Amino acid sequence: MDDDYLRQTPYSDPGDLDTGGLPRDPRRLAAAVRDLLIHRGEGPLFGYDVPEERLHHDAESRYVTEILRILTERGDTPLTERRAPDGRFVGTCRDFSLLLCSLLRATGTPARLRCGFATYFVDDWYEDHWVTEFRAPDGRWRLADAQVHHEYDVPFDPMDVPRDRFLVAGDAWRACREGRVDPERCGFSPVEGLRGLWFVRGNVLRDLAALNGVELLPWDGWDPRLLVHAPLSEDDLAAADAVAAARSEDDRRRLYADPRLTVPAEITSHTSYLGDRQVTLPAR
């Protein structure tokens, strides 16, 4: 099954990128990604006032080819060379994770995107977040957070994030349903209304999609229950329960074939700065 996660998707495909000069070591690849991107909320940490145009538009880049095009426009240095903030792509956690996933696949390491919740950004909070999961030489799947840089004082290796510090969405869903985690502590902390069980369910669907090669933007929507505080039916709860319980790739593929859980070709992207827009996704 690892072959599935060596194969690029329309989202992770780096196009005609020459990977000959890239390291094969996942740690070095993560460092390269960290030196090419800057999170759009972290300009002050780098003493950088992010231009409004980049703040509004960079993170709407759905594909790695777009990220690489923008990086090429901002500098002709190799991807392995650290860039000043004004030469970087201004993205979100999803962009760090997707680019690392792309480079890992391109250099022979099975990798996949995971959507879920991190506990290491805000105290007593499960923050909406994306990371990369890769197959280590010992055969274990490890969680890697390429966004975590020197300013973050985390008590673990960002290339092997503990499963209780980043909860993949299905694990967070089960913890909420079993009463171990309050769903009102799960979501996007800067915005008061973006939290709750409905939000956790949205990440369960996005994580399932990513595991099936549809690596969405965090604000993509296609289901009315993905809207703020939309009530969930018993059918919604049961379907998310089934996804959260799935452990095999066969089960995840079977579940993704369920029309309730499949991302359609036409979606709405509820963009952070540019408003809602209709998007046609590429065929797998």
Automatic annotation (TrEMBL):
Annotated TM spans: none
InterPro entries cross-referenced by the UniProt entry: Papain-like_cys_pep_sf (IPR038765), Transglutaminase-like (IPR002931)
Gene3D superfamilies in alphabetical order: 3.10.620.30
Highest taxon, organism lineage: Bacteria
Region (Disordered): 1-24
Transglutaminase-like domain ranges (all copies): 90-146
Protein name: Transglutaminase-like domain-containing protein
Organism: Streptomyces violarus
Lineage, broadest ranks: Bacteria, Bacillati, Actinomycetota, Actinomycetes, Kitasatosporales
